[in-house]
Amino acid sequence: ITVCMATFNGEKYIEEQIISILSQLNDYDELIISDDGSTDSTVEIIKKIDDKRINLVFNKNDRGYSSNFYNAMSMATGDYIFLSDQDDIWLEDKVTITLKYLKSFDFVVSDAFVVDSNLNLLEESRFKTFNISNGFLPNFIRTRYIGCCMAFNRKVLDALYPFPEKKYNIPHDLWITLISEKYYKTSLIDNQLIKYRRHDNNVSNGGLTVKNNKR
After folding, report:
1. What residue stretches are annotated with the Glycosyltransferase 2-like domain (predicted)?
2. Right CATH for 2-207 from 3.40.50.1860, 3.10.20.30, 3.90.550.10, 3.30.1490.20
3. Are 129 and 185 contacting, i.e. CB atoms less than 8 angstroms apart?
4. What is the per-residue pLDDT across 13-44, written as a single tens digit (0 to 9) for each?
5. pTM
6. What is d(CA 14, CA 203) in angstroms, rounded to the nearest whole number?
7. d(CA 132, CA 25)
8. CA-CA distance, 92 to 94, in Å (whole number)?
9. Given Cys at both, which of 43, 132, 159, 189 links 127, Cβ 3.0 to 4.6 Å?
10. What is the average pLDDT score of the chain?
11. Cα–Cα distance between 109 and 111 in angstroms, integer?
């Protein structure tokens, strides 16, 4: 397994999220964290965790949320790729349930509890709130998938190359969704596998744009 995380000024929640991920990984799995030039203590917190499964890298490409994710994904060595935001919480059965689905499907998207900054419940099911369905056409018109709920196998990752140039402004999760729905076997996972934190500081993108249209 490779978990790809993009960080930018995430000091408030990053440690809690990393711990929730590492607790589910085996010794030979990896967590690749690509930092987009954080100016707070994000990098120091990551280094302090001092776990050999963490590979901290720095985005030297065009800065931005999707570019930062592409940087992490380009270094992935695992057979299965999970995406992660810096401020959510993985529930304890996320990896186990997701891997069961990935035995039969190439690309999966799980449901999520939506919570506030203090983990108070805002929405019981993101799938129900946004009436999410799989398939190419509904997601081409307006995708409701979000990267932090995605996982996919190696052949999907290989099909994503070359990643879209930044000038086209194609979000990474939209690109992954369209390639997967067009060419691969996909499934929704009706279990809520993360606590998806929605708050006023949902920034990524190296300060270039704000990710707080947390959808």
Report:
1. 2-159
2. 3.90.550.10
3. no
4. 999 999 999 999 999 999 999 999 999 999 99
5. 0.91
6. 13
7. 28
8. 6
9. 132
10. 92
11. 7
